[in-house]
Queue: 2 jobs
Job 1
Amino acid sequence: MISKDEIKKVASLSRILLKEEIEEFTEQLDTILDYMNKLNELNTEDIDPVFHIVEFGNVFRNDEIKASLALDEALKNAPQKEGAFFKVPRIIK
Amino acid sequence: MLYRLTLTEILQMVKERKTNAKEVFFSLKKRIEEVEKYVNAYITVFDEEPEEKGLLNGIPIAIKDNICMKDKRTTCASRILENFIPPYDATVVERLKKSGASFIGKTNMDEFAMGSSCETSHFGPTKNPWNTNYIPGGSSGGSAAAVASGEAICALGSDTGGSIRQPAALCGVVGMKPTYGRVSRYGLVAFASSLDQIGPITRTVEDTALLLNIICGKDERDSTSADIPVPDFRKALNRDIRDVKIGVYEKGLEDCSKAVKENFKKAEDVFAGLGAELIPVDLPHLEYAVADYYIIAPAEASSNLARYDGVRYGFQQWRDDLMEMYRETRSSGFGNEVKRRILLGTYVLSSGYYDAYYLKAQKVRTLIKEDFDKAFDRVKAIILPTSPAEAFRLGERINDPLKMYLSDIFTIPANLAGLPAISVPMGLSEDCLPVGLQIVGRAFCEDEIISIAHAFERETCFYKKIPVFKEQI
């Protein structure tokens, strides 16, 4: 059973504000998490977890300098910018 | 009616100088003008007339709106990316351009590809061209509906848990998810990185083979793309499938709709008639696939979507406090289904729950993969329905997320196991809604499932059935 307080904590970790939808979300996530308990029917003690479904080992490349995105291109989509920078609210008070 | 033809047919006509890319483009534009108001398959439709060049001779293709195209708005059907203009092309787009493709538009989808009905789009739902009271499936519902309605000749979609195959089935077209690693994910907006794969949605298996030839292959910008030779998939067409051993996942049929059961039985008869050897296979852990997927996919999504903070691109709700700005931006920018999955993913990864949920799910993923490995010792491919039922009505499941998730039961396993899978039309329900047959193959053996799918298509010719808009009568 997931509580409203747990949902609030998870929302805060996710940087999401919940308003009136918190009731509905709590109920829905509780149903979903309850369904996931189905996995506990299986004994997985000696089973290795999947980390890469297709195994290739490490992928290396040469350490060469290549062209990257131009500054104006990289800043093009920024909602707020100043000179060569993304603009954010003051952090150091 | 050029818009009704297949890519292969059009290319043949271009070769014989009977048509050209511009005529095809204007035929599609006219069709879009006529039926887009009923379907809503597109988020953006392009106006640039095509240039004839390369293998594809400028024939226009539709692209799902989570695949980046340089200087073309790419929204992911989300408010948070509503005005995002990518400064680069996805590798698949680059490859299509090199092969002479032009583009007709960016197709609608569930927000961030999270959904099975195309209803979570910020730009309104796409509707099923066979009956506009029904959903087209999702998340690549716009791509599938565009191809089915004649608003596109063929399209690209993306598939994380069935997002190409399920809408293809529900719209009566062909959809393929290649093996994980076959197609570069560079420029595909990430949802669940260990599951996402780009693939074609077309009217015929032949067109799928043609597009796969173009989009597959190693890309140094995606370290998970496989350095494995790409065969000419068209050589897999027109093969005899006599004595080919095909596994049948019979248990899957138990809870399927009448239309799926009946048409699946007929499909088995078709394969028997073609001389294939049908062998029942058991995949004992398949019943755990949905629970497994809805831990792994949201976990990866919660991490991937952390980048939407309103600073570098996308929607921003400015506040004088940075943390407040993050919260306001994300809360107004994401829709409810995306929020639910971010919360779910954050929960299963959070301290104290990681082992119980995420690690457990990755172990069950091993069991699901081993089920397929065992089955593939005996058979070349496995057939099962793409979706347990035909399309459902708009609005029917939107407030019941678990019920929505369960409609992915047959498509999710191929993503979890990284295997290639194709959906081909296998008939219509009594209400004239399409159902799909799914063929799952061994890793990097797309050619084998193309052979089987093409043999089935030649025998049944379901692709010749096309939807009629009752609104137009």
Note: Chain A has a mean pLDDT of 93.
Job 2
Amino acid sequence: MATFDGYPRPDGPAGVRNYVAVVPTSVAASAVAEAIGERVVENVRSTPHQMGIDPPDEARKQVERTLSGVGTNPNVGAALVVTLGTETIDADELADEISGAGRDVETLSIRNVGGTAAAIEAGVGLARDLWDGIAGARREERDARELVFGVECGGSDATSGIAANPAVGAACDRLVRDGGTASFSETPEFIGAEHLLADRCVDDGIRERLLDRVERRESTAQLMGVDLRGAQPSPGNQSGGLTTIEEKSLGAVSKGGTTPVRGIVDYANPLPVGGGLVLMDTPGYDIESVVGKVAGGAQVVAFTTGRGSTTGNPIAPVIKVTGNPKTADRLASNMDINAGTIISGESIDAVGKRIYGTLLDVASGERTAAERRRLEEFAVNELQPNELAELRGDT
Amino acid sequence: MKGTVLGDAGLHMAAADNVVTAIEDLDAGTEIPYDGTAVELDKAVPFGHKVALVPLEPGDVIIKYGETIGEAVEPISPGEWVHTHNCESRRGRGDRDVSDGEVA
């Protein structure tokens, strides 16, 4: 039986880290949240973001869902919600949702404590107290079936579809075989490969939902009378040898492995534990996409790259995998796995086995390159006007 | 890797593919064995980029991974670099719908 050493949680799967999350409700509280995180370095992680204080209703719901998901991720032992005090997102409601998952939570209003300097002082004290409350937690051996593994790609080139993505896919297949959940997203990067995913859906409902989500992303370009080529593949992808979105997608979807598609959930919605391969409908922007899966409960993320990427996440460790031998060399200090060996003859399955081993080690506490360097990018997906209109039923 | 490496130069990912992927920076004049003969590169092709194995006409599909990745938009000779200058996506093409008058 595959196992890892994790922190047991009252309401669900074990965490692979034990953090106090400092979660701002808007951009207006983000600087204070970040300062608190910097002042109390160890085990306190802030999630600063750019969302405004009064977003349109549907956009607000998505931000609330994301922040609540982040606050209840298994890697979070306790949370501090920071608000300016004028936001339409209610800090107390957000705190209640997080405490509903059995976590200790405090809220801090910048307006109520008398400004940013006072809020940072008060926040540092609250974060320390919250840490004291969870510092006694100890790792225990847990079944790998408790793991929700998010997979992402960014800075793709031709090696992504040949080496790094199929190797991560082989690791996903191993986790799914051991009873866990693997999830990949970035719906624009299903375009041209959706027929292959559709063939693997376990029932018609999931198949229809998947094809509907892909069509929505594709029709965004059609509605605007433009084509995707300006952005997909990106200029960097093109330099790396990727000519069309179809080519990029066919390489991208291999990172989820080869098992049946058991579901597709919306951005930042809960990913099932023990759920096999489950997709999430997200935009192609990798930071927002990673955050969507972490909000969905992913405790560990694998991030493949060809041309190079150094990004991490504040809450979930991010394992960087490259299939490009030049990137493996030039960005060695930011990479965890060199899958470029596949180009020179190592088997995809052997590298997949290596990645699965690293996943279990990282889940048990081994720090990734991004963690050692405190690379903790965070962004919430902002719904675009056409998406808001559709959700309101205007279209 | 999935597929077959032709002449230590190009990765042929599936039998149906009409392009190969350069697995190193290839010089002009490099020969890639294919179908009992060889295609010769007319220009240098960088690592990760694609080379045509067969003659292609505008509208012909380009196949990699055994799947359609786009279509030729000009005549392409065997041994020619295949990229955005001579191959285009068939998907997410709102621009084509506009010219066809299909978008309200």
Note: The beta strands of chain B are 4-6, 10-12, 19-22, 31-34, 37-40, 50-52, 61-64, 67-72, 81-82, 87-88.
